[in-house]
Amino acid sequence: MSTLTPEVTWAQRSSDSDETRNYLYVFINVPDVPSSSADTKINPTSVSFKGTNIKGAKYSVTLDLYDEIDPENSKTSHSPRGVELVLRKKKLGLEYWPRLLKESKKAHFIKTDFDKWVDEDEQDEAADDDYAANFGGFGEDGGLGGIDFSKLGGGGLPGAAGGEEEEEEEEDDEDLPELEGDEKPGKKIEEVA
């Protein structure tokens, strides 16, 4: 069986004064790879992953990073969906890395993670309790980071409260002409030539 290159998504933050706000988010999409058969290595200039999923598919990827990171202050979390990494950039600075990899050639398997991405000029406005603080996107209580689901949608489904709208729809159906083949017993439809 051949070795597959997994999809890698990434985003970043930068700071010239706070090293805890100077990091990369990297997700290696390797579903169903148990942590017992996964090998993730974080070095100052590269990250590598090798593993085999429960169906026997082998994954391998090495990322030669654009600049140096601090392996001791980086985090790894293995889940059934893949490997999540928060990599601390070694150099402080407001400027974003122009790309994840050292080589400027486009890598087909690397994508921007737009769910975590914040534009460089808007990163100070991003909440401090974002992904890095609540590693994996969950709050300290294991919940969904204090999301108020009641504020996410409109008023619900039509007719769900009292069923009045359903009755009105049935009444409106009586005024519609019958479709061909939907003849009601006792009614004869005349053909027009």
UniProtKB/TrEMBL annotation:
CDD domains, per database record: p23_hB-ind1_like
Comp. bias (Gly residues): 146-162
Biased composition (Basic and acidic residues): 182-193
Acidic residues biased stretches: 163-181
Domain CS: 3-101
Location of the region described as Disordered in the Swiss-Prot/TrEMBL record: 146-193
PROSITE patterns named in the record: CS (PS51203)
GO cellular component terms listed in the entry, alphabetical order: cytosol; nucleus
Entry's Gene Ontology molecular function annotations: Hsp90 protein binding; protein-folding chaperone binding
Gene3D superfamilies reported in the protein's UniProt record: 2.60.40.790
InterPro entries documented for this protein: CS_dom (IPR007052), HSP20-like_chaperone (IPR008978), p23-like (IPR045250)
GO biological process: chaperone-mediated protein complex assembly; protein folding
Family, per entry: Belongs to the p23/wos2 family.
Protein name from the UniProt record: HSP20-like chaperone
